[in-house]
Amino acid sequence: MKLLVLNGPNLNMLGIREPEIYGSVTYAQLEQFIRGCAEQMGIQVQVKQSNHEGVLVDAIQAAYGVMDGIIINPAAYTHTSIAILDALKAVSLPAVEVHLSNVREREGFRQVSYAGMACFHTVMGEGIEGYRTALQIMKEKLQNKN
Ligand code: DQA
């Protein structure tokens, strides 16, 4: 089982950025955490982060025919990017949306998720543990398919 874990803008600033919302774990530690969880579950992961919408679109397209699923935290592009939504629809891979914070309890402009419209599940408000949850949910989904 091969999954792409894709992280959007400003997530590279984890540990520095608004720790009261996003916690004190750095992005490097988050990547390590994701790799560790995936290894425990017997999942191969490619973990990527970009601040650029087009790079995220390219990464989603590159997953086509290579990956079995996508776990995505599009960060601020969640709420703005039809291009990311369209890319997820184009490759038609099972996708899970992750947010560290509980966006539902935040500002009005965070209440729309375009990317989420192409995801079969959303995990939010669990901090970095949300990535473990997302990996687990994806694993169950892909196992039930076979
Ligand atoms: C986020 C929530 C988004 O609204 C925000 O723009 C982010 C991070 C989260 O993980 O909680 O950058 O996706």
Order of secondary-structure elements: EHHEHEHEEH
Tell the overall outline.
Answer: globular
Structural class: alpha/beta
Helix content: 25-40%
Low-confidence parts: none
The number of strands is 5
Name the hetero compounds present: 1,3,4-trihydroxy-5-OXO-cyclohexanecarboxylic acid
Indicate the radius of gyration in whole angstroms: 14 Å
The largest pleated sheet is described as: 5 strands, parallel
The average pLDDT is: 97
Q: In whole angstroms, how far apart are the ends?
A: 12 Å
What fraction of the residues are assigned to beta strands by DSSP?
15-25%
Q: What's the helix count?
A: 5
How would you portray this structure in words?
This protein is of the alpha/beta class. Helix content is 38%, strand content 18%. It is built from five helices and five strands. The chain has helices at residues 19-22, 27-41, 53-62, 82-91, 129-145; strands at 2-7, 44-49, 69-73, 95-99, 121-124. The chain has a five-stranded parallel beta sheet with strand order 2-1-3-4-5, with helices on both faces. Helix 3 (53-62) runs parallel beside helix 4 (82-91). It is globular and about 40 Å long. It starts with a strand and ends with a helix. The relative contact order is 0.19. Residues 10, 73, 75-76, 78, 99-101, 103, 110 line the site of 1,3,4-trihydroxy-5-OXO-cyclohexanecarboxylic acid (DQA).
